[in-house]
C-alpha cells in the first residue's frame, strides 16, 4: 500500500525536530509542521532535503514509535512510513536508505544488503554504543562528501570494536592503544587466523592514510601543511572495508572459544 509521503510527514507533528540555526534579524521562526513541510518542498539543495528527511523520520522512528497514542497516524505506523520512504528512494533510483536512525548512502546494493545492514544490526548492541556512533558518523560524513572525516571515523569505529572485544575477553590493553597494538593483541590471542593478519594490517594503513593533512618535507610545528583531497571512491572503499572487517571481528568473537 502506498502512502503520500508529504502526508506522512505532516501528520507526524514534526514541528520541533527541524530547528534553523538562525533567523533573519527582527524575525522569528514559526515552528508549525506546515512551515517545515513548505520549507522542505521549496528546497533546491539535495543535501538539505536529505537532512530534513533524516530528522523527520528519526522522530517518527523514535518518538512516534514510543508514543503511538499521542500521534494521530491512523493506519500508518512508523515501520510502514520507513518502508514507504525507502521504497520511494528505490523507485526513483536514489542511492539512499533510512536505517538505524540515519539516512545511509548506498553505492552497492549487494554490499549494503550483505555487509552494511548486518553491521548496523550488530552495532546496535548496547556494548558497542561507541563504535556504533562512530560508524554512523562515518556514514554521515560520506554522504555529505566529507571524505577525510569519514576515514577518521572509520578508523575510530574499527579501533572501538577491537577495544570492546578485548575488554569483553579481559585481554589487557590501554585505552590509548591504536589499531596497530589492538590488532597485535587479537592476533596474539588468535581471534583472527594468522593468514588474515596482512589483510588487517592493510586495512589499518588504508584508514590511517585519511588523516586530514600531511606535512611536506619542511612542515614541522604546524608549518607548511598541505591539504589532501580524498577521492569519493577511496572513502567508499574504506567505509565498506571497515564494515566488512567489523562484521568479521564480530563473527570471529561469537565463535571464539
Walk me through the structure.
- The chain is mostly helical and 257 residues long.
- It is 59% helix and 5% strand.
- The chain has 10 helices and 4 strands, in the order ααααββαααααββα.
- The chain has helices at residues 5-11, 33-42, 46-66, 78-91, 109-123, 129-143, 147-169, 179-188, 197-208, 232-255; strands at 96-99, 102-105, 213-215, 225-227.
- The strands form 2 sheets. Strands 1-2 form a two-stranded antiparallel sheet. Strands 3-4 form a two-stranded antiparallel ribbon.
- Helix 7 runs parallel beside helix 10.
- The protein is globular.
- It starts with a helix and ends with a helix.
- Mean pLDDT is 74; it is low at 6-31 and 210-224.
Average of pLDDT: 74
Termini separation (Å)?
47 Å
How would you sum up the global shape?
globular
Enumerate how many helices there are, as a single number: 10
Structural class: mainly alpha
Quaternary state of this entry equals single chain
The tally of strands reads 4
Query: Would you list the SSEs in sequence order as H and E?
Result: HHHHEEHHHHHEEH
* Estimated radius of gyration: 21 Å
For the largest beta-sheet, the strand count, sense and barrel status come to:
2 strands, antiparallel
Side-by-side strand order of the widest sheet: 1-2
Question: Which percent range fits the helix content?
Answer: 55-70%
Unreliable spans: 6-31, 210-224
Strand content: 5-15%
